[in-house]
Write a structure and sequence with these properties.
Length: 510
């Protein structure tokens, strides 16, 4: 466990050192859970977004995109349920003056018991060696059974309290299980209160015509309120989808794990409108389509799993998360939800305007049902960084999926003389329209390879004496470190085959 935490720390500092992610407002000591993307990070992030956007809009002729405003009429958030129900239960410690999510404190306590059980099992496995029967040990060892019983009781009380929205019981659990503030070490807790996660601000210039507005906590509502606009102007026929990429804002109480939980983040959401009754079939199709999108990146099929929701929001009739194995465990990267006709019906009710679709094949009007796919750009970014980072005795390398790499190739003259820089610039000039390239002539070629490895550049092209004679270069592969001699004319085809987004998109269609 300690080792995994170390790796994660290394990834966070690597992100900063090589211009991927900086803490926001660092000059002023930072701003909690807000981050800036640097010169490398923005390219990686844009490539992730382009991969998602093109997989949605180019590969599906019935999906179109929009870009709606962050500010929306405040009644939209009443209709969507966010004003009344987009809450987290918070609790303060009077000694440390720190604020926590009550549910997270309890979840951490459950995780601690799990860790103790696992440590017990690991210890026994070492002691018994080959003959160890884990299932039997878990069923019979007195200490494990005692801990498991405590964990199950805690879990069941917690689940009941959360389902019933019982804030008093959440506090009682914290007291009964003697959960202490990790900073002050005390149990001096306030009552648990509901805390709405939406940021509120004011629109308007004079004091008598200002209106409270919210920074959107999800991009989805911008799609729902434009359903009719897009359907009519785009002459869309059900089934069809609307995709959007944009910023979302949540005043998270506990912001943890770097860019995993931020207060300002980006979402890529697609709402797919279908006939009532056909939603579960589409839900299953979208589950598979989205998992295939992730797997095509080649980061390891075993690193993904579905987590089906047992407890559904009142408006959903199916929901699952695609989880990715981060260094801190399997975590949600994307949610796929069958949202019934809840959102469109609510907007019809609150706006007083008809929000329905006339189905020419059925010759009837209805409120479409919706399947939503919703993925966080930043979490996707984090999963890519975590699965790509490798540190060994000789180098630190990012094995980024090649089409996502910020720089696709580096062009390196072996020495800064004998016409090599000029030849290298000539190659750069030919490649730069199709691929993000970097020219580097400083330091030894070995050091330059290391610099490119650290930012995940798939190919280094080295120009040497032979290049000037026969127009060949050495092409070094980031992952294998193998160098092959290839003709300059072959470079676009080789790099394109491995690094273009098209090649990735074609995998999805195969
Ligand atoms: N429209 C549905 C919706 O917003 P969600 O599960 O709350 O659903 C969808 O969010 C995705 O947005 C998550 O799977 C996650 O990737 C990302 N996300 C949510 N909150 C986030 C946060 N505070 N920081 C970074 N990403 C977040």
């Amino acid at each position: 466990m300690a080792q995994k935490e170390d790796v994660f720390k290394k990834i966070v500092s690597h992100c900063k050192e090589y211009g991927f992610v900086f803490p926001s407002s660092e000059l002023y000591d930072g701003l909690g859970a807000v981050y800036d993307y640097g010169q490398m990070g923005v390219e990686l992030k844009n490539n992730i977004k382009r991969y998602w956007w093109e997989a949605m809009t180019l590969l599906h002729s019935n999906i179109v995109g929009i870009d709606s405003a962050v500010f929306m009429h405040p009644t939209i958030w009443k209709a969507s349920g966010h004003v009344d129900a987009f809450n987290d239960p918070l609790i303060d410690n009077r000694d440390s003056k720190k604020r926590y999510r009550a549910d997270v404190l309890i979840e951490d306590e459950i995780a601690k018991i799990d860790d103790k059980i696992n440590a017990e099992v690991e210890k026994a496995a070492k002691r018994f060696g080959e003959s160890f029967d884990e299932a039997m040990f878990r069923q019979t060892n007195a200490r494990v059974l005692e801990r498991q019983a405590k964990r199950d009781e805690l879990h069941s009380r917690f689940e009941k309290a959360m389902n019933a929205n019982d804030l008093d019981e959440l506090k009682q659990i914290i007291l009964d299980y003697e959960i202490v503030d990790p900073i002050s070490g005390t149990k001096n807790w306030t009552d648990v209160r509901q805390f709405n996660l939406m940021f509120k601000t004011q629109m308007g210039s004079s004091s008598d015509n200002t209106m409270d507005v919210y920074l959107r906590p999800e991009t989805a509502q911008g799609i729902f309120v434009n359903f009719l606009n897009v359907q009519k102007t785009g002459r869309m026929r059900i089934p069809f989808g609307i995709a959007q990429i944009g910023k979302a804002f949540r005043n998270e109480i506990v912001a943890r794990q770097f860019i995993f939980r931020m207060r300002e983040f980006e979402q890529m959401e697609m709402q797919f409108f279908v006939r009532p009754g056909e939603e579960l079939e589409w839900f299953n199709k979208w589950k598979e389509t989205r998992l295939a999108w992730h797997k095509a990146l080649g980061m390891g099929d075993e690193k993904y799993r579905f987590h089906d929701h047992e407890k559904l929001a009142h408006y959903a009739n199916a929901a699952t998360d695609i989880e990715f194995q981060m260094p801190f465990g399997f975590k949600e990267v994307e949610g796929i939800h069958s949202r019934t006709n809840f959102d469109l019906s609510q907007h019809e009710k609150f706006s007083g305007k008809k929000v329905q679709y006339f189905d020419p094949e059925l010759n009837q009007s209805y409120t479409p049902f919706v399947i939503e796919t919703s993925i966080g750009v930043d979490r996707m970014f984090l999963s890519v960084m975590c699965s790509s980072f490798e540190e060994n005795e000789t180098r630190v390398v990012l094995h980024l999926p090649k089409p996502l790499a910020p720089v696709k190739c580096a062009i390196l003259p072996l020495v800064k003389k004998d016409g090599m820089p000029e030849k290298a610039m000539e190659i750069m000039q030919a490649l730069k329209y199709d691929f993000a390239c970097q020219y580097d002539e400083k330091d030894s070629v070995g050091k330059r390879y290391r610099r490119q490895d650290a930012i995940g550049t798939p190919y280094c092209i080295t120009v040497d004496g032979q290049t000037l004679e026969d127009n060949t270069v050495t092409l070094r592969d980031r992952d294998t470190m193998e160098q092959t001699r290839v003709a300059i004319d072959e470079l676009p085809a080789i790099i394109g085959r491995e690094c273009s987004l098209n090649s990735l998109l074609k995998k999805l269609e195969a």
